[in-house]
């Protein structure tokens, strides 16, 4: 039997060839061009980017929204405050408000594909569940982006300052992050959420962002500590560049990969944190709607009306999964050691080419 | 070394001090525990308000009150009282073991399985298995723990209990399970196309036959192992552990491990007698320690040169056999257990951390009860951290396998097993210790959520109660425990790091 440790023999020629191809491919390209190319080639990340983009458009255009003085009308015919009559027609016995979504084709005894009036069903008092989930997803996405912005900004600034200036500034800032890191996110989030949850989702998100930057700042600090010792920083300093110029023009662009990747991961963590807090009752509170809140409200009706449980959960998973895949694609794209895995065609064409050349 | 630990500990105390100060003030300033009572003109309410202010010292501003609290904690180990006047310390005392049990179980399971799959995934880089594992890890990574927990409750618990009512596996289930197992083994043990199909066939047929046998003999209703099955499993463990640990060509290790299997079979009935007669946690642990001691002796007896690895192999083998015997013992009480009125044939519980209706005084009943209550929450928690371990151990092992010393090891002509297990795997453990700490902090948060889904009376419940009731003393008690656990995990990781990696110098002073 072939045991797990036996290893296929590597083709050494092909190994050299792949280095060759990798070098040839990036000839004459700038760093950002290389990164962009690698990212666009990552199939999972591209699919996720497309899905997430489509989802954001879909979710935010579905309902009427008001942002400050501006507002727009959504394309969905119910809002979260409408209470149409509870429909029990076509539902199993003792169940009301079941989904009207149907897809089974006519020749199998179904009603063909169609959405009906309430594709996701209705909640206890007849509110349209599609509208509720859309509003919940809007809330979660808002939290994700605000947390990403706030925590990303603070984390970068703190990490950059302590990594670049070192000394006592570094010591003070890093002890402070140590303090915050000891506190489990859910504990901290609950305290914040309990007091700011009723002030609206943006306030909650900003407050969460104010505490979730610590992991990022450590990574950025490490990157800055490494980069500031490199020759090009010395060269810039000798040429008379100010600290500000060195930070913004020389070090930060080189650290941007680490920052982008970890902000992405922070964002996927943020949606899970927000929904978990709302689930515990410490995040978004009724009458506002959040995906976590919907799950916690209807977890007991799982046996009779499972759709009230499935849709919010699936939306959370989809959003988090997309962000995670995008993060993975970005990590691969920014990783200088990353070499593209060559397809069979690439290999066969260049291996022969290399051999002929030698 | 002691100086180093001392220095680390003092830093940890400083960090604990800082973060508890921060949290104390954050909580104290963000909410008012007297909110419901203020403005109420009822004399009783005024009385209650006064006594609350007096008991909780609310007239002292929070930063100063923190030091009063700290003084009591440090000097008398007194965490104060809750709003209701109960002692926080006694609340914590009952909650801590429950939560720690959950956290430890899920961490261990996630680490063992996660690292195993991560390593296979790395060794099979860019195969279908690797891609599938990556995808599964990402999905698990994106799952909200409370959602998974509710799903497990609804599907696993309810349907498993229903299944136990007759204990027969439906034929289409057997078909699906065998195909899945065939695909699983065929992707792990890759090779030529013919080999893959062979493996698939053997694995699928094997699973189908064994499932059908178990189902036909009503094994799931009356699960039992008995000395024969323990022996067969023991031989399997002996070969497996020896293969992974020193390689099958090391006859001394194999002999020593097999001797332990024979010994455990010879001692099977005396062991059962002891376990029945002296049922309890300490006799069981004592037997386990005795087994390990016996393993050391056996290892020394069979080895002539290079004793360390042989003793280690024997100890691991016999520890695992010990676990099998304990599982066997738990299975023996399974039938009486599920037939008690408290269980009534539905053994997988979805709520609470133990069954209070169970007749007291039977150690094996309560042990089985605890294990069964742990099943679902542990599964939910470890599924999520499993993903992190798979990703991380895969990445690290791939990085290590690219190092020069691996090439040197291969060039020396070492077997692939030695290269992977001795040169590569050990070096992946070093960076993995850091991820364990990060994950540990996350798993505490996860435990708080999981406990609330499963209605455990653990730290999660106390935490909920503390926040909702603006109960600062209770909150600080919970916080102090979680923070201490996190910080201690940090310390352990640091020490492990310096123990595993000789390049990390322990600098004292």
Structural class of chain A: mainly alpha
Q: How would you describe the shape of chain A?
A: globular
CATH architecture label name of the largest domain in chain B: Orthogonal Bundle
Contiguous runs where pLDDT drops below 50 for at least 5 residues of chain A: 350-358
CATH topology of the largest domain in chain B: MetI-like fold
- How large, in whole angstroms, is the Cα Rg of chain A? 26 Å
Which descriptor suits the 3D outline of chain B?
globular
User: Which strand-content bin applies to the residues of chain B?
Assistant: under 5%
Average per-residue pLDDT of chain A, rounded, comes to: 80
Give the chain pair forming the largest contact, with residue counts. A-B, 49 and 56 residues
What percentage of the residues of chain A does DSSP assign to strands (E)? under 5%
Order of helices and strands of chain B: HHHHHHHHHHHHHHHHHHH
* Number of DSSP strand runs of chain A: 2
Main sheet characteristics of chain B: none
Distance between the termini of chain B: 10 Å
- So what's the CATH class of the largest domain in chain B? Mainly Alpha
Compute the average pLDDT of chain B.
84
What count of domains describes the coordinates of chain B?
A: 3
Helix content of chain A: 55-70%
Word description of this protein:
The complex is a heterodimer of chains A (358) and B (509). The relative contact order of chain A is 0.13. Chain A has a two-stranded antiparallel sheet. Chain A has 358 residues and is mainly α. Chain A contains 13 helices and 2 strands, in the order H-H-H-E-E-H-H-H-H-H-H-H-H-H-H. Chain A is globular, with a radius of gyration of 26 Å. In chain B, 78% of the residues lie in helices and 0% in strands. In chain B, helix 6 (145-166) packs across helix 15, helix 9 runs antiparallel to helix 13 and helix 17 (416-454) crosses helix 18 (459-468). Chain B has 509 residues and is mainly alpha-helical. Chain B folds into 3 domains: 15-78, no CATH class; 97-164 and 348-509, Orthogonal Bundle (MetI-like fold), CATH 1.10.3720.10; 218-345, no CATH class.
């Amino acid at each position: 039997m072939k045991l797990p440790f036996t290893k296929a023999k590597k083709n050494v020629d092909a190994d050299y060839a792949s280095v060759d191809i990798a070098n040839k491919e990036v000839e004459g390209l700038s760093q950002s061009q290389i990164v962009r190319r690698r990212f666009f080639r990552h199939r999972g990340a591209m699919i996720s980017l497309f899905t997430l983009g489509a989802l954001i458009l879909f979710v935010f255009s579905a309902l009427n929204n008001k942002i400050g003085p501006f507002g727009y009308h959504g394309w969905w015919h119910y809002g979260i405050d409408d209470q149409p009559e509870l429909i029990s027609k076509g539902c199993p016995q003792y169940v009301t408000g079941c989904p009207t979504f149907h897809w089974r084709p006519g020749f199998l005894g179904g009603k063909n594909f169609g959405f009906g009036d309430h594709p996701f069903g209705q909640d206890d008092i007849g509110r349209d569940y599609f509208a509720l989930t859309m509003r919940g997803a809007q809330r979660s996405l808002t939290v994700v982006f605000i947390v990403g912005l706030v925590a990303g900004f603070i984390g970068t600034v703190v990490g950059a300052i302590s990594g670049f200036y070192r000394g006592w500034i570094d010591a003070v800032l890093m002890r402070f992050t140590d303090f915050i890191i000891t506190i489990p996110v859910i504990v901290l989030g609950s305290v914040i959420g309990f007091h700011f949850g009723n002030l609206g989702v943006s306030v909650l998100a900003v407050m969460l962002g104010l505490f979730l930057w610590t992991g990022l700042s450590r990574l950025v600090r490490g990157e800055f500590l490494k980069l500031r010792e490199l020759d090009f920083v010395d060269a810039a300093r000798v040429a008379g560049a100010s600290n500000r110029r060195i930070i913004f023009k020389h070090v930060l662009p080189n650290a941007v990969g680490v920052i982008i990747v970890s902000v992405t991961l922070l964002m996927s963590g943020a949606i899970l944190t927000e929904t978990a807090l709302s689930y515990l009752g410490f995040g978004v509170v009724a009458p506002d709607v959040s995906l976590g809140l919907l799950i916690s409200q209807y977890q007991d009706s799982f046996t009779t009306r499972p759709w009230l449980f499935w849709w919010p959960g699936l939306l959370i998973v989809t959003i988090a999964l997309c962000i995670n895949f995008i993060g993975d694609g970005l990590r691969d794209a920014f990783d200088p050691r990353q070499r593209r895995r060559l397809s069979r065609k690439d290999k066969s064409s260049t291996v022969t080419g290399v051999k002929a050349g030698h | 070394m002691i100086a180093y630990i001392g220095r680390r500990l003092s830093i940890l105390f400083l960090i604990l001090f800082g973060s508890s100060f921060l949290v104390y003030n954050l909580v104290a300033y963000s909410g008012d525990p007297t909110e419901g009572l203020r403005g109420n003109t009822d004399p009783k309410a005024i009385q209650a308000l006064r006594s609350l202010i007096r008991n909780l010292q609310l007239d002292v501003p929070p930063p100063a009150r923190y030091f009063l609290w700290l003084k009591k904690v440090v000097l008398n180990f007194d965490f104060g009282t809750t709003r209701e006047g109960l002692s926080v310390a006694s609340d914590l005392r009952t909650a801590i073991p429950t939560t720690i049990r959950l956290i430890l179980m899920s961490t261990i399971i996630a680490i063992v399985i996660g690292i195993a799959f991560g390593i296979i995934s790395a060794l099979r880089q860019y195969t279908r298995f690797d891609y599938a594992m990556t995808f599964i890890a990402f999905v698990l990574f994106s799952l909200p723990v409370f959602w998974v927990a509710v799903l497990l409750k609804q599907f696993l618990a309810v349907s498993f209990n229903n299944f136990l009512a007759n204990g027969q596996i439906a034929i289409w289930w057997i078909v699906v399970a065998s195909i899945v197992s065939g695909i699983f083994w065929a992707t792990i043990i890759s090779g030529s196309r013919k080999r893959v199909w062979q493996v698939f066939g053997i694995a699928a047929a094997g699973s189908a036959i064994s499932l059908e046998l178990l189902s036909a003999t009503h094994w799931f209703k009356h699960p039992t192992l008995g000395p024969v099955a323990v022996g067969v499993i023991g031989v399997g463990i002996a070969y497996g552990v020896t293969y992974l640990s020193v390689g099958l060509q090391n006859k001394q290790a194999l002999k020593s491990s097999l001797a332990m299997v024979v010994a455990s079979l010879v001692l099977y009935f005396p062991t059962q007698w002891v376990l029945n007669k002296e049922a309890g946690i300490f006799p069981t642990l004592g037997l386990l320690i005795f087994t390990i001691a016996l393993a050391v002796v056996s290892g020394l007896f069979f080895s002539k040169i290079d004793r360390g690895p042989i003793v280690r192999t024997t100890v691991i083998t016999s520890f695992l056999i010990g676990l099998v015997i304990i599982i066997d013992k738990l299975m023996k009480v399974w039938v009486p257990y599920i037939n008690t009125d408290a269980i009534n044939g539905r053994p997988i519980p979805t709520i609470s951390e133990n069954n209070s209706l169970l007749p007291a005084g039977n150690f094996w009943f309560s042990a089985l009860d605890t294990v069964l209550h742990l099943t679902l929450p542990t599964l939910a928690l470890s599924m999520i951290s499993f993903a992190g371990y798979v990703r991380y151990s895969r990445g690290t092992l791939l990085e290590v396998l690219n190092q020069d010393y691996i090439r040197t090891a291969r060039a020396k002509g070492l077997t692939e097993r030695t290269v992977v297990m001795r040169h590569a795997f050990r070096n992946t453990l070093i960076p993995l210790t850091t991820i364990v700490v990060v994950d540990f902090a996350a798993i505490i948060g996860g435990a708080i959520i999981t406990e609330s889904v499963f209605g455990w009376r653990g730290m999660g419940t106390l935490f909920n109660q503390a926040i909702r009731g603006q109960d600062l003393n209770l909150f600080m008690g919970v916080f102090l425990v979680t923070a201490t656990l996190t910080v201690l995990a940090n310390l352990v990781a640091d020490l492990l790091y310096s123990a595993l990696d000789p390049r990390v110098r322990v600098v004292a002073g």
